[in-house]
Amino acid sequence: MIMTKKFISWLCFMTVICFILHSCVNDEIISSSDPISKEYHSKSLWKEDEKYIKNIMKIYTEHEKDIKKSSGIPDWYYAMSMGKYDESFMVVPIIENGKVINTLACARFDKKVYFRYENSESNKAFFQNIIYGKYTQYKTDPQNNTNKGTQKGMVCITKSISMWYPDNESNPSGGGYWETNYYTNCYNFLDYSGPGWEDNGGGGFEYGGGGGSGSNDSDNPVLTMPPPPNIPIQNMTQFLSCLNITQPANLKVFAERMGNGHGVGHAFISITQGNNTMTFGFYPKYGAVQSLSGTGIFGDDSGHVYTNAWNAGTITPTQLQQIIAVALEYSTSDYDLGFNNCSDFTLNVLDYIGVSNSAVGIATPNTVANLIGSPANGTAPATHRTCN
Asked: What is the mean pLDDT of each run of 10 residues along the chain (388 residues)?
């Protein structure tokens, strides 16, 4: 009888234990599918932009039905901002049955964020090995590799990690081998916001995170196709013909910041040589608001408003020739809001005089303003040419 009571007590005890264990496992499953139900903490091997990641988690949760185009769930604990800390980019692995089946990237352009499934085998392997690999040591890349791609407006991100896998898991100090995995992503505005994004993720969701540094202004102005110039320059070669390319000249750089009552903003330059002054910038010829690109044309920016002005001083004949050459090149190209705009032209000019832009992403008038500094409200010098 006593044995029977003990047996029954033992069965009751085991039942309670099993129930508790089942509850814990069930809770873990629920919280894995909805990481926001638990306090987020990064498990990444790098420092991450956790503010941006948390904001994206919130947006994803609110709009999951519009964003989700794949099975599996995001493992937010391993979300990575890939060395960017300006609330502009992150990627999260998508997990199903203990395996990384895809990666979901999210890029911010001004006020809005865009999601895109990467469908990259190498990027999946990168996260698969970090999360589930049986490595015993690892070495991360010593620096963040973010740079502009060869195509204008393109941002390229690379990240690498080397892991030591022992030949025998029971003898981790024995022989083994190093294996390196890479994450790569080259993207631009149209990759995320273009017509095909519906098949690969979701986009155009308002971002309330407050923004960061780089090309975004404090009031997060929206990128919009600017209007055509008030004074279009029909023949750029003739417009610049008064300049003597064998002599030095003076260069000034101007920017009108976006937002704060200045609309879409603008970036432009002024070249003075003797009694000749040419003030000009790059524009869309027609300026359709609904478009992202169109025929380009230069405009005479005499008297154009600016919020930042920098006198770059004397430029050499060689630099003058380079600036004229790039102006003529732009004059026959399309204006593209993401790749080939007024700020891209101005930044190209600055590059020829040794002033390089380290910001990544789409170049805007704010990018130029941040680079040249010198806040000063005013109007640009008028164009004055002494030749026909």
From this structure: 48 48 38 48 88 92 89 94 84 95 86 86 94 89 52 68 88 86 76 49 66 38 80 96 96 89 86 97 82 89 95 95 95 88 94 82 87 90 92
pTM of full prediction above 0.85: no
CA distances to 71, 238, 300 from 381, in Å? 59, 19, 11
DSSP symbol at 318 = H
Rounded distance, CA 299 to CA 281, Å?
Answer: 6
Yes or no: say if 217 and 227 are a contact pair by the CB < 8 Å rule.
Answer: no
**Rounded to an integer, what is the distance from CA 320 to the centroid of its chain?**
32
Tell me the β-bridge partners of 132: none
- 3-state secondary structure at position 249: strand
Q: Are strands 232-233 and 99-109 parallel, antiparallel or unpaired?
A: unpaired
- Computed from CA positions of residues 202, 207, 212, 213, in that sequence, does the dihedral angle turn out positive or negative? positive
Are 192 and 116 in contact by the 8 Å Cβ rule? The answer is yes
Question: Of 379, 310, 318, whose CA–CA distance to 347 is shortest?
Answer: 310
Nearest to 49 by CA among 106, 110, 104: 106
- Supply 289's token pair: 């608001």
CA distances from 240 to 253, 269, 388 (A): 17, 13, 10
Rounded CA gap, 267 and 226, in Å? 11
Bridging pattern class, strands 276-284 and 293-300: antiparallel
User: What does the block give as tokens for 48?
Assistant: 């991450």
Helix (H, G, I), strand (E, B) or coil at 27: helix
Place of tokens 């380290």: 358
